[in-house]
Amino acid sequence: MRILLIGATGYLGSVVAEHLSDTGHEVVALTRTPESPSRYAVRPGDLHDPDSLTAAVTSDIDAVINVATPTGDAAVDAAAIDALTAPLRGTDRPFLYTSGVWVLGATGEATAEESSPTNPIPIVGYRPEIERRVLATADHGVRATVLRPGIIHGRGGGIPALLVEWARKQGAPRIVADLNVRWPMVHIEDLADLFGKVVQDAPAGSIWHGVAQPAVPVRELALAAAEAAGVHGEVQLWPLDQAQGELGEPFADALALDQSVDGRKAQDQLGWRPQQPDAVTDVSKGSYR
Ligand SMILES: NC(=O)c1ccc[n+]([C@@H]2O[C@H](COP(=O)([O-])OP(=O)(O)OC[C@H]3O[C@@H](n4cnc5c(N)ncnc54)[C@H](OP(=O)(O)O)[C@@H]3O)[C@@H](O)[C@H]2O)c1
């Protein structure tokens, strides 16, 4: 397929682009900086400019994947979805929107599935509305899907890289707010593989959790991060108000979110088989050293 990818320069998008390209697809990167060197064909575009988005979805584009970060403005993001999906209406071409598990909120004792109600924390406050807007296009002949990754690890990047940085700075493992927090985790290469499966095979109107490990104790991740940083010591608790002061309230609250999220639907229905090292092994002995 010739796939228009929004966000191909990002942490996740760059690996998705690589995977799609390696598995025989042609990637066309929509970018705000078309003059920058790219190994893919590029088209200019910006989520703030709906006309640029519609213009990029030409009839030779077989599928569209949005892996960009949201703009922070609900109206802008809604207009971007409308602009990207307008040319796909009535064609059954795929549109994959990347959301995230934070839309599920704190899960408590339960393990959230794709059918669980959303309960977004402030950092992703309007994202469920965007998900609904995407999925509603399935009624208009778009093979629209939503993929919600867990916290991504791999290639030494993403949120776990922060844990390593904090450990290095503090000389000890450090976590925000609560020793009992758990994060749903996924390796970036496994997740990229799931993007390929969803865009290829998932039915219109479906939601998928990109989660290989439902609930990894952040305490274990912090200890792994300290090992990668070459430091030892007891886990330090970073009080929420202090973390909020440094990281901003929405992001600090997100890091303190306790979740258990089920990713088995993609394994059962799309044949997804996560094969990469688990998060603690990757952080302590793999790509974060
Ligand atoms: N990282 C995680 O653990 C995680 C977990 C769950 C969900 N997600 C979701 O996955 C997506 C990608 O995350 P990431 O960690 O890869 O983020 P990232 O590294 O910050 O990459 C963001 C990408 O979005 C593009 N972008 C930003 N604003 C844009 C705009 N106005 N118009 C066009 N493109 C724009 C950026 O392009 P430029 O090169 O032009 O800046 C970049 O390619 C996000 O939706 C995020 O919420 C991430």
From TrEMBL:
SUPFAM superfamilies: NAD(P)-binding Rossmann-fold domains. This is NAD-dependent epimerase/dehydratase family protein. It comes from Streptomyces siamensis. Residues 3-201 form the NAD-dependent epimerase/dehydratase domain. InterPro entries: Epimerase_deHydtase, NAD(P)-bd_dom_sf, NAD(P)-dependent_oxidoreduct. PANTHER family: NAD(P)-BINDING DOMAIN-CONTAINING PROTEIN-RELATED (PTHR48079:SF6), PROTEIN YEEZ (PTHR48079). Residues 266-289 are annotated as: Disordered. It comes from the Bacteria.
